[in-house]
Amino acid sequence: MKPHWTGVFPAVTTQLKKDQSLNLPATARHFEALIASGVSGLIVCGSLGENQTLDPDEKRAVVKCAVETAKSRVPVLSGLAESSTAAAIRYVRDVKQLGASGVMLMPPMNYKGDPRESMTYLRTVAKGGGLPIMIYNNPLSYANDITPALFAELADEPKFVAIKESSGDPRRITELHNTVGGRYSIFTGVDDLLLEASILGIDGWVAGTGIAFPAENHRLWELTRAGKWDEARALYRWFQPLLKLDTHVHFVQYIKLCEQETDLGAEWVRAPRLPIAGAEREQVLAIIRKAIACRPKLG
Q1: Pairwise CA distance, residues 69 & 27, whole Å
Q2: Quick check: helix, strand or coil at residue 129?
């Protein structure tokens, strides 16, 4: 089966003003910078996009902004994390009308379902929504694990076209190949497992921290595609302290701070999140500024 989506699909932040209102012009500016860097798609309103703290109309406004900015140059996907199956289906239908190319489907945020419930939820949204779906598997954060065996069960639903694998266990990549080999596009969603996952064989990367360093992010991806492992390792070692910022509970604040330091955004977040402060802020700024000072020349 030909992969539906491949390449770097960054999970993009939702830019806010200091008063926590949407800043769509700033969000569009960042979309443009990412598209210019060579990304293959955009994912808006995911966890990094603060999906759960956006009002329904705000989420749709961000999707509309992304579609209008992209102008069909790259596909636009929206994160989907509604609390009920009915709301999820409504959301897919709405973003389809806005021009989205697909959705990244997360489990319901306020209920830990058992496998039967999770599978029913995924299938019902697929049949009712009408867009291609990337299933986001992140058992560490969302307490629902879609295992390779469950992905095999889901393989008869054509709307499921990709997997964002974020279990944190690189062995899952090989298990997916052995269980559902070629059925789905396999994306890694853990920034500091990118190189390991690439060696094992992936089709794409849902990048996080790299949205603040788009040129280096794209170069690293290109090196993995070309099998230039010595060059990839060198760039990855520079990148790793930054990529690790994507795996902390404050990942949204950390990555928005990265964007602010690289003039690609601002650090303002939606409550209950708060910008980081004190010693934590200084530690993260030290990581970011050291990386900027040692930024590699890409030729």
Answers
A1: 10
A2: helix
- Which 8-state DSSP code applies to residue 51? G
Domains of the chain from N-terminus onward: 7-293 (3.20.20.70)
Q: At what angle do helices 56-70 and 85-98 cross, to 10 degrees?
A: 30
What distances in angstroms separate CA 105 from CA 35, 61, 249, 270, one per listed residue? 23, 19, 20, 22
Torsion angle, alpha carbons of 226, 34, 173, 241, to 10 = 90
- For the residues of 141-193, what is the DSSP string, one character each? HHS----HHHHHHHTT-TTEEEEEE-SS-THHHHHHHHHHTTSSEEEE--GGG
Nearest in space to 253 (alpha carbons), one of 245, 241, 242, 263? 245
> 113: buried, middle or exposed (CB in 10 Å: 19+, 13-18, 0-12)?
middle
pLDDT tens-digit map of 181-207: 899 999 999 999 999 999 999 999 999
- Does residue 99 contact residue 62 with C-beta atoms inside 8 Å? no
Alpha-carbon distance of 189 to 169, in angstroms, equals 11
pTM to 2 decimal places: 0.96
